[in-house]
Amino acid sequence: MWPCITIFRPLLLKLRSRYAFSKDTQLTLVSPSKLIFRPSASCTGVGKKWTRPTGYDTGLKTYNSLTKQKEPLVLAQEGIATWYSCGPTVYDHAHLGHACSYVRFDIIQRILSRVFGINVIHVMVITDIDDKIIRRALEKSISPTILARMYEEEFKNDMLALKVLPPAVYLRVTENIPQIVAFIEGIIRNEHAYATKQGDVYFDIGSIGDRYGKLMGAGDAAGEPEKRDSRDFALWKASKPQEPSWESPWGKGRPGWHIECSTIASSVFGSQLDIHSGGVDLAFPHHENEIAQCEAYHQCGQWGNYFLHSGHLHLKGSAEKMSKSLNNYITIKDFLESYSTNEFRMFCLLTKYRSAIDYSDASLNEARSSLATITAFTHDAQAYMRGQLQCQAVQEGALWERLAETKANVVRALADDFDTPRVVNAIMSLVSHGNRHLQPIAKPDRSPRSPAVFGAFLTYIREVFEVLGVDLLDRKEPHSVDSSGTLENVVEQLARFRSDVRAFALSVEDMPGEPAHASPRPHSEKLPLLKACDTLRKDLASIGVHIRVRMYSFCQFCCKTFLKRK
């Protein structure tokens, strides 16, 4: 039962703003000057204290940046995890620092879905309007939209090359401006934001009191004359010359950085989110401000239940993270010219996802060596199973026991904050154990053979790494037509060209002496064009590209009407 709390009417609005009580909080008038409220079930958490969610306990534990310790992973719905992640700001090439974060969270999502049967509903935002995008577009003398689309496409291709599973949907900021404006209006209505005479809108940190700073503390920021508090941050920026802008109640402008994620995550998942992820550099101020915005808008005490942050990628011997601003980065494309996708993923698996990771030839060679050891064991085990490798009698019972023990250890490690280094160690120990039983002998001693247990070893090892996104068979998957946005755009232009040619070929002429009610016919010399269009449509269909065409009679009608108007 919630405790009843007596409050005085003049304090009600202050308490509402400070603790962000839900709109449906129950209020009872007990005297002309007193009220009793009971927080609704949807409003959890007061102040900075984290409240364990109610719902489905997965039996897993994960490190929660909100509490700085491992917590039981409890989901709102059984078998479903709502997951939001900050995507790229598409103004330049993605580098290995980005890749490391996305691959690590891809591994966790694969574990949740393929080991523990949880359906992960993952949404990612593409920041396609930002100060950096605008500056780079001006440098290149191209439209910010074109620049953003170009690097967005490159990012998606990089993720495909790294075998990162795409989210359920990518959502662009520029395609959600009306929703962002409405979200800001909601925060203003709840008295947690204010507009300035210049047309900017700021979040009012003072309005939420000590509830700000759940992740990293209250922080500090440079003061500006129009701000009420130096820490207040922009929700809406008034337009400037040569910048894209949109209409709003405060004048033309564009969204601030933090508001886009709060809006888009809320538009999909509402007032409660299971998991939010990103690089540790995003914890403050970005994620901190997201939390403040969402809890102010939804008037709830705990919007996101778990915040997962991946550690930085450092160049060996440097304390600095890999970063574009520091000009110490390696692009994903350049990296994949020297190393494989499997090697990079193994490199990520060898450290905990929330730990910093050193990039060096030595660390990548360790990943390569681990894969080579597994490949060599696979070759020897298969040779033994074919009868091509003669060994002494193996202790089959001990091998089956070791396999069962490894399986249990792997599940325990994955349930304990997705501990992939322990998983890799368990698998490598299993490989080492198997290798000790595959020592060749000079002369066959007719001892009994045990091929089945080695088949079980190989199947299990392959399955574990497949779950983690490492393809030990190293299959080359051909890119489908719709996997490349560039090819998709080419097909779109080709279809438009075909449509224009077909429309021209269907243009008609009125034959002298024909009755008015006769069906119009295209010029006879244009019939080969029609035939070529039909051939193109059939050829594209054979490779999976289907062009929907209007009914022939409808095309004739439109063409005839157009010609008569002329």
UniProtKB/TrEMBL annotation:
A cellular component term, taken from the record's GO annotations: mitochondrion
Key word Methyltransferase present: no
Gene3D superfamilies reported in the protein's UniProt record: Cysteine-tRNA ligase, C-terminal anti-codon recognition domain, HUPs
Record-listed E.C. numbers: 6.1.1.16
Full protein name: Probable cysteine--tRNA ligase, mitochondrial
Domain tRNA synthetases class I catalytic: from-to ranges: 77-368
CDD domains (alphabetical): CysRS_core
Cofactor: Zn(2+)
Described function: Mitochondrial cysteine-specific aminoacyl-tRNA synthetase that catalyzes the ATP-dependent ligation of cysteine to tRNA(Cys). In addition to its role as an aminoacyl-tRNA synthetase, has also cysteine persulfide synthase activity. Produces reactive persulfide species such as cysteine persulfide (CysSSH) from substrate cysteine and mediate direct incorporation of CysSSH into proteins during translations, resulting in protein persulfides and polysulfides. CysSSHs behave as potent antioxidants and cellular protectants.
Gene name as annotated: CARS2
Domain Cysteinyl-tRNA synthetase class Ia DALR as annotated: residue spans: 411-472
Family matches, as SUPFAM superfamilies: Anticodon-binding domain of a subclass of class I aminoacyl-tRNA synthetases, Nucleotidylyl transferase
HAMAP family hit by this protein: Cys_tRNA_synth (MF_00041)
Cross-referenced NCBIfam families: cysS
Organism expressing this protein natively: Salmo trutta (Brown trout)
